[in-house]
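In this section we walk through a basic example: taking a raw amino acid sequence and producing a predicted 3D structure, encoded as discrete structure tokens. The instruction is simple. Fold the sequence below.
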Amino acid sequence: MYWSSAQQLVHHSVTGCPMNAGDLLASGTISGKEQHNFGSMLELSWKGSREVKLENGEVRKFLKDGDAVIMKGWCQREGSGRVGFGQCSARILPAIPFPYDSSKEKVVESTPKQPGERYTNFKLYGCWWSSCSWTVRIALAAKGIPSEYDTHIPININLDEKALTSDKHSSINPMQQQAPTVLEFMDGGNVVRISQSLAIIEFLETAFDHRGGRLLPLDPVARAKVKEIVEVINSVTQQLQNSSVMGMIDSISGKESLGEEFGKQAIMNSLSSVEKIVAAIHSIYHASAAGPFATGSFGPTLADACLAPQLYNARRLCVDLEGVCPTLVEIEKKYNDHPWFQNAQTEAQLDAVK
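The resulting token sequence is shown next.
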């Protein structure tokens, strides 16, 4: 079996896959004569007639729901450099009933704990209107990690200083924030708490690398573009339109609406910047080749998880999103139909004020 370069290019790109100079193409499954040279699960099990023994002692004839598939590949000729595609991994998830109706996806079942997993008993301390809590809820859904949700104490914008500095509250929320986001879990016999949303998500991506979806791409450029958008939101947008900041501006100025105007301008400037970044990414690809999410991917990334709450906040501040960031508005439509985002929305939280 042989595929010419032209045939490979057509085969890969006919469905809209973006191709770039320097991409590594594989010519298909080429197997040897011996059993250890077989190149697919179908050959290894000989169409399901033979058992394939795994390293942990289990056997398979076909892949099962929950199985992780990890592929590594490289080639090298004497006197030449080594060429490979690194590591490609994914987990087999249960099939979605056909025809798919997103309106019926009210509850997304979490992936059961896998044998030997080190981290267990997850609990998220947060607040329904917190952007950080919202983003972490999306990350937990992406990894299929079951978690208990707890506000710890009734948290609201007028939480008094005595409650914030209490031993009960500060033991979980050392920064004494009015709307903290803290992930608590067991590491063996030890209780571990991590605050700050990006630190939490970085932990989840590393600790559960082969579980659920991936919010941070492996490709260095794609990963950097995701983090570029995240940094704009986390370092600028989120901080300047924070309720406590806007409240402080009102208090210092003595003008009740000045803080909100400041927050509105800050979020408009920030989303305008993100719009330019995202539009530039999508313009690189032909319209049919780019994926529907923020960085041109075919699945949500951390950039999308951070964008969703900020677009919500922008509407709360009466920002004209169609005028400021039309590309982001189109991308946001995909969030509403995606199960990771549906149950993470503010109105779906138990502590939400209806």
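Looking at the output, two observations stand out. The two ends are 62 Å apart (CA to CA). Confidence is low (pLDDT under 50) at residues 99-108, 152-161. In the next section we compare this with other chains.
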